[in-house]
Design brief:
mainly alpha, about 85% helix, elongated
Length: about 160
Amino acid sequence: MLAEVGLGLSVVLAGLWSGLLLAVVTLLHPMYAALDGGEFAVELQRFLPVARKSPTNWVSVIGLVVFPVLALVGLAGDPTGAPFVLTALGLVCTVAGPLLVSRLLAEPNYAVILGWDPAAMPPGWDAVRRRYFLWNRVRGAFTWVAFGLFLAAAYAHLSR
């Protein structure tokens, strides 16, 4: 039962997070890429404070770490089986992407963006914008892979 609940919630949260990042990368990035520096700063200075404080973000990222661990505890009886291995790999992806890339790379980049004066953009602002796009794509890739791994783990576990 623990494995099923952990896997089920891992799939749901990874799916939701995947969708969020898909929207950011495929909808917001093209819109933001078309803006000049000042406009980009204004938009991100509106968006980032809301996104950073959103309970959805916090609950999702915490759940993407906690629920796979719960599943692994439930699957511990067969640590070499496909469900365990796939879940462990999915957990590595969620820790690497949504947790570590966000905390260590994206958040410091956000702090730079939030410190800009849109009327007097600093030199190199476009490199910071490129990093904003890059970290979202990296987090997206890790999350999309994790979603696939959790789905495969759930399928393998339920097919037994």
